[in-house]
Amino acid sequence: MPEPTSRATLVTGCSSGIGRAIANRIAGEGWPVYASARDPDAIQDLTAAGCTIVALDANDSVARAAVVSMIEGRHGAVGALINNAGYGQQGPFEETPLAAFREQFETNVFSAVGLCQLVLPAMRRQHWGRIVNISSMGGRLTFPGGAAYHGSKYALEAISDVLRFEVERFGVDVVLVEPGPTSTSFGAASLRSLDALEPTSDRAYDEFRTGIRRALESTFERSAKEGASRPEEVAEAVWTGLTSDTPEPRVVVGKTAEELIALKERGTAREWDRVVAGMYPQPRPSPEEPS
Q1: Calpha distance 106→99 (Å, rounded)
Q2: Adjacency order of strands within the sheet including 129-134
Q3: Is 4 among the domain residues?
Q4: Does a structural domain hold residue 147?
Q5: Which pairs count as long-range contacts for 92-98, CB under 8 Å and 24+ apart, including other chains?
Q6: Can you give the residue range of the structural domain that contains 159?
Q7: What's the confidence (pLDDT) of residue 187?
Q8: What is the mean pLDDT of each run of 10 residues along the chain (291 residues)?
Q9: Is this prediction's pTM over 0.90?
């Protein structure tokens, strides 16, 4: 690996367990780390690890440009970009407003795209850069109730695959990190997004909504007992992606993610439907309605 001019690293979404762990891990190696969050007060403790705290709403194009410009002014380039900002919108497809789909894609996809486009010119000039996009096992498989979330992660994966090919000869590597269930507040936020949705007037999905909640809660409980991945494991995967001479394009984190992705990819679409049917009640007409 050629010696990079700048290893200055921008990490988004550092108020989460994963983002916080990533910032800590990289700063611990002596790299300049710019840890960002919408509320910088929530991550002030990261200064103790050596991070520089920056306020960044990743959905704000003006704010994105200002932060990248500031880092480039100090270091010449953002040498490493970790796109971690994201959340999981849950709910029946029909009950999820188009505005909620747009917001999900704005945060999980377009903020990452915007930052990549901003940092690439300087990465190309120094002929070294690493872009690590935090995806999910949800970018390789789907569960009912997660249309917006899975759609955003599948999009991020496809974009990353294209980008990896286009920038490789410029010395820039693109890595996808795909965690399974992880011990963070992500699950609680997903449940809140479900609760915020308005039901259809005929309450056609009430039983299904209850099933989504139960399935999510069961996943959280099972993960807690059986050992969900720790944020530090995700951070270690990111660090490997930053420092490997030939980083893997995809890094799956956690036994649950490995097993479910393998199960999904070796079977047919209908076989996966049968797997999730064992976890979720399938929406259906009420007995009074014609089927």
Answers
A1: 10
A2: 52-55, 33-37, 9-11, 80-83, 129-134, 172-179, 250-253
A3: no
A4: yes
A5: 92/145, 92/197, 92/205, 92/208, 92/209, 92/212, 92/283, 93/147, 94/200, 94/204, 94/205, 95/197, 95/198, 95/199, 95/200, 95/205, 95/209, 96/147, 96/148, 96/197, 97/197
A6: 9-277
A7: 64
A8: 78 94 97 98 96 98 99 98 96 95 98 99 98 97 95 98 98 96 69 82 88 80 66 96 97 92 95 91 74 53
A9: yes
For 18, the token pair is: 């994963």
Tally of domains in the chain = 1
Residue 289 belongs to a domain: no
d(C-alpha 121, C-alpha 2), whole Å: 18
Catalytic residue among 34, 149, 154, 205: 149
What is the Cβ-side half-sphere exposure of residue 57, based on CA atoms within 13 angstroms? 7
Start-to-end Cα distance in the chain: 62
The answer to whether residue 286 is domain-embedded is no
Is 205 a known active-site residue? no
Distances (CA, A) of 288 to 4, 204, 219, 284, 285: 68, 12, 33, 11, 8
Q: What is the CATH number of the domain that holds 109?
A: 3.40.50.720
Looking only at the bridges linking them, the beta strands covering 9-11 and 250-253 are: unpaired
The residues near 180 (Cβ < 8 Å, ≥ 6 apart) are: 136, 137, 228, 229, 252, 253, 254, 255, 256, 257, 258, 260
What is residue 219's DSSP assignment?
H
